[in-house]
């Protein structure tokens, strides 16, 4: 797993996202795109300027360390293994 991932969000929620460090809708991956248009093409995000049915303009970019995903996944796998062992001893 690459060590850095990128999150593409709508600028419609920019103020809320900057204040809370959370966005209601986003797309993420390991490729850093130069423009929102490139990100929309890559993730097949529906967008039409001025169209209220658009999903996201993908122009707000966030960068994060993927170690947090690895730790979460490892924890989930550990808990599942522990549960299997506990069930088989019963």
Topology:
Blueprint: E1 4-9, H1 14-20, E2 26-29, H2 36-43, E3 60-65, H3 67-89
Antiparallel strand pairs: 1-2, 1-3
Structural shape: globular
Give the low-confidence spans. 74-90
Q: Determine the strand fraction and express it as a percent band.
A: 15-25%
Mean pLDDT level: 78
What distance separates the N and C termini?
Answer: 36 Å
Order of helices and strands: EHEHEH
Q: What class, by secondary structure content?
A: alpha+beta
User: Can you summarize the main beta sheet?
Assistant: 3 strands, antiparallel
Give the neighbour order of strands across the main sheet.
Answer: 2-1-3
Helix tally equals 3
Helix content: 40-55%
State the total count of DSSP E strands: 3
Query: What is the CA-based Rg, rounded?
Result: 18 Å
Can you tag this structure with a few keywords?
disordered C terminus; 90 residues; alpha+beta; globular; three-stranded antiparallel beta sheet
Report on this model:
Helices cover 42% and strands 18% of the residues. The chain is an alpha+beta fold. The chain has a 3-stranded antiparallel beta sheet with strand order 2-1-3. Mean pLDDT is 78; it is low at 74-90.
In short:
The protein is of the alpha+beta class. The chain contains 3 helices and 3 strands, in the order βαβαβα.
């Amino acid at each position: 797993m690459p060590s850095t991932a990128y999150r593409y969000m709508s600028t419609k929620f920019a103020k809320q996202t900057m204040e809370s460090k959370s966005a209601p809708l986003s797309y993420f991956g390991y490729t850093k795109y130069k423009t929102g248009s490139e990100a929309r093409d890559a993730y097949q995000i529906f967008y039409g300027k001025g169209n209220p049915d658009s999903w996201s303009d993908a122009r707000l970019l966030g960068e994060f360390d993927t170690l947090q995903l690895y730790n979460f996944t490892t924890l989930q796998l550990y808990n599942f293994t522990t549960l299997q062992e506990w069930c088989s001893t019963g």
